[in-house]
Write a structure and sequence with these properties.
mainly alpha; single chain; elongated
Length: about 130
């Protein structure tokens, strides 16, 4: 029985490591996509500001200055947000890993309960689709 417990704990540990690695990868992919979209948006806005740079209307000049200032603010906020998200994701992964190490039986119980819930949900969905 002890060998089975150790195997289960080892499997759960490996699964949590794999999930953490997958999570990190997805966070990196999402961050890169968001960064690319933000860069494209900012480039479009900068291009618009440059195109209206020759317009001499005072109202347009005021708006141009406000947009240029807002662009700087957006860049700063985007950098701050990316760092904050990265720190939060790292903390979540480390906390989960530590929790699984410190409480393997609880983690096994949670994983089992989730497995049962998913199984019940899949069974109910399959039964509902057969009735149609």
């Amino acid at each position: 029985m002890s060998a089975t417990t150790n195997d289960t704990a080892d499997n759960l540990y490996r699964a949590s490591k794999e999930a953490a690695t997958d999570f990190r990868s997805r966070v990196n992919d999402t961050r890169e996509h968001a960064r690319d979209e933000m860069r494209a948006f900012l480039a479009d806005v900068e291009d618009l500001v440059k195109r209206v740079a020759n317009v001499s209307d005072a109202d347009v000049a005021r708006v141009r200055v406000r947009v240029a200032n807002a662009l700087g603010d957006v860049r700063r906020m985007a950098n701050d947000t990316a760092e904050s998200l990265r720190d939060r994701a790292r903390f979540a992964v480390e906390s989960t890993d530590e929790y699984v190490h410190d409480r393997p039986w609880t983690a096994i119980g949670i994983a089992s309960a989730l497995g049962v819930l998913i199984g019940v949900g899949v069974t109910a969905a399959a039964a509902a689709s057969r009735r149609r």
